[in-house]
Design brief:
Blueprint: E1 10-22, E2 28-41, E3 45-48, E4 51-54
Antiparallel strand pairs: 1-2, 3-4
Length: about 55
């Protein structure tokens, strides 16, 4: 996996950000925004005595 360096066949990912706004009265408001998301996978070949198949 690109983010952790661990081997895997597929993975989803999501990036979020937090925005903090301070009002003139001293109030604090936070909001969470999704900045991106996706998923990825790698092809691999499964082989046994009967043959092989790309997955």
């Amino acid at each position: 996996m690109p983010l952790t360096g661990s081997d895997c066949l597929g993975y989803p990912w999501r990036v979020t950000g937090v925005e903090t706004v301070r009002g003139v009265d001293g109030s604090v408001e936070r909001s969470v925004h999704q900045l991106g998301r996706g998923r990825d996978a790698v092809r691999f070949r499964l082989v046994d005595d009967t043959g092989a198949v790309a997955v």
